[in-house]
């Protein structure tokens, strides 16, 4: 831990390459405790790879990533105990009930047997799935599966909740539902949330700060308002675009993507996995 | 699906959404388990999942009982009449039964790697790997879950064999020994499968490998005929085939035929440990 404030996540010159492809290339990132931090960027910008480094799924040298002061290379188990993770795919086990899905994560996080049932019930209630808890997850709608995954992540009382595209493929009502539950739990527990998303309106509405990634590193960073204002000022200075209306976060995204996109972005596996998720949700 | 109304979130409204006015347990992280208790806890967690799945859907249990039943019914009864295979004085169907129990348990375990690839594709594996569960503990848990599933299957085949008139022991200690042998062998074969999964990384390729190795393992063992009638090269295969040691143990325990129980169990334990080590070391490839 450095300085007075504890950083939930700090990445220092984080780099990760798949063969020749440098997915993350010198990423510096700092997520403050208690904030909702959005990691945005086009397909292939390196968001998911960065998340996988932070969650200890991909091995990185020590000194690159710290979670609440713990080095992910040296202190892997301590880092994992602090994390709740919802991957991009719909990852609930369709052959188990909602309650059994959550109970599995209570077990692997060492929740004592005497409080397991109560904790699982609270996690399910926190995402509004009490009534559906004893149905097989295979019968759930996409929005319900996402909320179930949220319950799985919450049952261990994580200090950092990591969500990779939590609302991908969901209809607007389900999207709002997922975010409301994230916000409710965050308000009640004070946990830090790190989220990646493609939906700029969501980032604008729900994130305290956002970082726009392109080509494996941070392109711009700030509150959504700061980023919009920044682009507005640049446009005014350059005399381009409508100067009377403030740009949206989507305009900021287009501005970054326009300069950062190339043929490498969004490889086949990326798109296939996104489509698979969308298909299972739909 | 009951979504909350789309009102702007406020702290008080949010707390009201949680049970009992607060998520009392959801703000307190659970106490980490001490080192040595972690492994049995993870094994128990994986076994619980396997039993829950079996409770929800028993189709596989029934469909997988068909083949062993046919082996015993057709092959067993026919060869009992032909008397072509030296069995040491017992009816061939009796001789065959332990081999078929071992075979049906192996078939379950050898395709366990497909499940881990499916879990990888569904993101379940990644989620489990982000829990305080070392890779070796996850693989051990999966291996024993496969063992449990195989054991349930073995019980079904034992019941079928008993119905067909095979003279099996009902000595509880010997049956416990049978259970241990089945679980250890299934742990090995499931780890073999997960190891191949870690190498080939795709379900289709693993299916091919599974098909390719199952029959050689089965025919290259003493499940159908004694080692003494095999040609020399096949005897060598049988010597390094853990299935042979499992069948030898099952035959000794269930029928009381002469067996090398100490060697059999030692080989099965060592094979299971090696399997767990190999599969654990390759699990990282699946997580990438």
UniProtKB/TrEMBL annotation, chain A:
Please state every residue range assigned to the domain named ABC transporter: 9-240
Q: Which domain of life is it from?
A: Bacteria
**Pfam families with a match to the protein in the record:** ABC_tran
SUPFAM superfamilies documented for this protein: P-loop containing nucleoside triphosphate hydrolases
Start and end residues of each stretch annotated as Disordered = 258-282
One GO term in the molecular function aspect is:
ATP hydrolysis activity
Key words, A-Z: ATP-binding, Nucleotide-binding
PROSITE patterns under this entry? ABC_TRANSPORTER_2 (PS50893)
Does the keyword field hold Chloroplast?
no
What is the name listed in the Swiss-Prot or TrEMBL entry for this protein?
A: ABC transporter ATP-binding protein
From what organism does this protein derive?
Streptomyces brasiliensis
Lineage, opening ranks:
Bacteria, Bacillati, Actinomycetota, Actinomycetes, Kitasatosporales
Automatic annotation (TrEMBL), chain B:
| Matching Pfam families | ABC2_membrane
Tree of life domain? Bacteria
Q: Give residue ranges for domain ABC transmembrane type-2.
A: 59-286
* Membrane-protein topology: Multi-pass membrane protein
Q: Check the record and name the PROSITE patterns matching this protein.
A: ABC_TM2 (PS51012)
* UniProt subcellular location: Cell membrane; Membrane
Q: Which GO terms describe its cellular component?
A: ATP-binding cassette (ABC) transporter complex
Q: Which InterPro entries does the annotation name? A: ABC2_TM, ABC2_TM_bact-type, ABC_2_transport, Nod_factor_ABC_transporter
Q: Where are the transmembrane segments?
A: 100-118, 151-170, 176-201, 213-234, 265-284
GO MF? ABC-type transporter activity
Provide this UniProt record's keywords sorted from A to Z: Antibiotic resistance, Cell membrane, Membrane, Transmembrane, Transmembrane helix, Transport
Q: Name one GO biological process term.
A: response to antibiotic
Question: Which family would the database say this protein is a member of?
Answer: Belongs to the ABC-2 integral membrane protein family.
| Protein name from the UniProt record | Transport permease protein
């Amino acid at each position: 831990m450095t300085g007075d404030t504890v950083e939930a996540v700090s990445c220092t010159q984080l780099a990760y390459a798949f063969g020749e492809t440098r997915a993350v290339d010198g990423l510096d990132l700092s997520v403050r405790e208690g904030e909702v931090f959005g990691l945005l960027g086009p397909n292939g910008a390196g968001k998911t790879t960065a998340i996988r480094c932070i969650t200890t799924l991909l091995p990185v040298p020590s000194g690159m990533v710290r979670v609440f002061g713990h080095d992910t290379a040296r202190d892997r188990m301590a880092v994992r105990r602090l994390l709740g993770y919802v991957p991009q795919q719909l990852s609930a086990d369709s052959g188990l009930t909602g309650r059994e899905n959550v109970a599995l994560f209570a077990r692997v996080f060492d929740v004592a047997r005497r409080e397991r049932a109560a904790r699982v019930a609270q996690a399910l209630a926190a995402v509004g799935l009490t009534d559906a808890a004893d149905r097989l997850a295979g019968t759930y709608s996409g929005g319900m599966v996402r909320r179930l995954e949220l319950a799985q992540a919450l049952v261990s009382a994580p200090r950092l909740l990591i969500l990779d595209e939590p609302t991908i493929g969901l209809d607007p009502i389900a999207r709002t539902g997922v975010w409301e539950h994230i916000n409710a739990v965050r308000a009640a527990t004070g946990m830090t949330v790190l989220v990646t998303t493609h939906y700029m309106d969501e980032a604008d509405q729900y994130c305290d700060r956002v970082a726009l990634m392109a080509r494996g590193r941070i392109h711009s960073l700030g509150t959504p308002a700061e980023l919009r204002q920044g682009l507005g000022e640049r446009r005014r200075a350059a005399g381009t675009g409508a100067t009377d209306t403030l740009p949206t976060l989507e305009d900021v995204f287009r501005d970054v993507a326009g300069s950062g996109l190339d043929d490498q972005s969004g490889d086949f596996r990326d798109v296939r996995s996104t489509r698979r998720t969308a298909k299972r949700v739909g | 699906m009951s979504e909350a109304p789309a009102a702007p979130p406020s702290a008080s409204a949010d707390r009201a959404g949680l049970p009992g006015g607060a998520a009392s347990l959801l703000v307190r992280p659970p106490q980490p388990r001490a080192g040595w208790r972690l492994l049995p806890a993870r094994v128990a967690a994986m076994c619980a999942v396997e039993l829950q799945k079996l409770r929800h859907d028993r189709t596989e249990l029934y469909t997988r009982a068909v083949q062993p039943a046919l082996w015993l019914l057709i092959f067993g009864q026919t060869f009992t009449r032909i008397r072509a295979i030296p069995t040491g004085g017992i009816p061939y169907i009796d001789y065959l039964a332990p081999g078929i129990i071992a075979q049906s348990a192996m078939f379950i375990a050898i395709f366990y790697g497909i499940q881990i690839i499916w879990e990888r594709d569904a993101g379940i594996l990644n989620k489990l790997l982000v829990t305080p569960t070392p890779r070796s503990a996850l693989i051990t848990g999966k291996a024993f879950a496969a063992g449990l599933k195989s054991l349930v299957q073995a019980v079904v085949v034992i019941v079928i064999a008993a119905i067909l008139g095979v003279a099996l022991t009902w000595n509880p200690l010997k049956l416990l020994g049978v259970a241990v042998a089945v679980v250890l062998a299934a742990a090995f074969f499931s780890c073999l499968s997960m190891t191949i999964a870690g190498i080939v990384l795709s379900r289709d390729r693993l299916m091919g490998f599974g098909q390719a190795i199952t029959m050689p393992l089965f025919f290259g063992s003493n499940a159908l005929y004694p080692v003494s009638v095999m040609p020399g090269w096949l005897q060598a295969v049988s010597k390094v085939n853990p299935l042979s040691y499992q069948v030898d143990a099952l035959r000794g325990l269930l029928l009381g035929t002469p067996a090398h129980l100490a060697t059999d169990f030692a080989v099965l334990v060592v094979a299971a440990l090696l399997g767990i080590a190999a599969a654990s070391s390759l699990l990282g490839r699946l997580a990438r």
